[in-house]
Design a protein that fits this description.
Blueprint: H1 50-67, E1 73-76, H2 82-92, E2 97-101, E3 107-111, E4 117-122, E5 125-130, H3 135-139, H4 160-172, E6 179-182, H5 190-200, E7 205-211, E8 213-219, E9 225-231, E10 237-244, H6 255-272
Antiparallel strand pairs: 1-5, 2-3, 2-7, 3-4, 4-5, 6-10, 7-8, 8-9, 9-10
């Protein structure tokens, strides 16, 4: 009996595969993410360090009040001696958000590991402020460091004039509602971005929020308008926006954060007393 003869399928059998398997290369994933780690400083002489311990207890109480909608509260650190000041610094540590408020006086702001508890340093300023965000960063945000320009649109500027008109209108009519212009999703040229940057100017506040990647925020010289840029862990820009708002949400401590900070700070103080 004659049997049907089937040709072997192409690409199979000896010699059809590479002798060595190729290794697939995957993009490396982020490895580090900031998480809360309670600081427990060593306290040898509780009597000598009583001023610092008392002040931090007051900070915890203030965090509860601000979480309930209370006004920001500030605590002067300049009167503490070196040992007490050092204990406060060790306990507070450094959190995710840092700010630079330019102008006179220039102020450096560093969030502590307790969200909503901020350290402020500058000429004549050494304080802790308990707030969703330091009040000066709101009050001085749009003081121009580099004023808005009236530069005319040149070659290569295509879509920026319409974006500028949108931002001017939303700034003038700002009523507290967030408005976002997402540059990442909109067609634009390098000349568009350079022209917008010149026209918008620079305000006084720069913010860096470090978490899963970085978010860089700066105020413009146009009221209520912020440039907000998100970068991944390899420092590649992944989202570029203008936000018309009082303060970008990425910089704010939520009421829940402040309540947690009050509780965690009391736990630390209880452990070292």
């Amino acid at each position: 009996m004659v049997q049907n003869f089937h040709m072997p399928p192409m690409g199979f059998g000896p010699g059809s595969q590479p002798e060595e398997e190729e290794t697939l290369e995957y993009m490396s994933l982020p490895q580090d993410m900031r998480t809360f780690s309670a600081p427990f400083p060593e306290v040898d002489d509780r009597t000598a360090l009583a001023p610092a311990l008392e002040l931090m207890g007051l900070v915890a109480d203030a965090a509860d009040r601000v979480a309930q909608g209370g006004a920001p509260e500030r605590f002067d650190l300049s009167k503490l001696d070196a040992a007490n000041r050092r204990l406060v610094a060790e306990t507070m540590g450094e959190g995710e958000v840092a700010m630079k408020i330019r102008g006179i006086p220039a102020v450096r702001v560093q969030e502590s590991v307790f969200a909503g508890v901020w350290g402020l340093n500058g000429a004549g300023v050494d304080a802790i402020e308990v707030a969703t965000v330091p009040q000066q960063s709101r009050d001085r945000a749009f003081e121009p460091v580099r004023p808005m320009s009236d530069q005319k649109a040149g070659a290569g500027v295509v879509n920026a004039p319409s974006l500028l008109a949108e931002l001017v209108g939303k700034s003038a009519a700002f009523d507290g509602e967030l408005h976002v212009v997402n540059l990442t999703l909109l067609p634009h040229t390098e000349e568009d971005l350079a022209w917008l940057d010149a026209r918008m100017g620079d305000g006084s506040v720069d913010i860096l929020s470090r978490g899963y990647g970085n978010c860089r925020v700066r105020s413009t010289a146009m009221r209520h308008v912020w440039r907000v840029q998100f970068y991944n862990s390899m420092d590649t820009l992944i989202l570029d926006t203008f936000e018309v708002t009082g303060m970008p949400e990425v910089a704010l401590a939520a009421p829940e954060d402040l309540s947690d900070s009050a509780e965690r700070l009391r736990e630390v103080l209880e452990a070292v007393r």
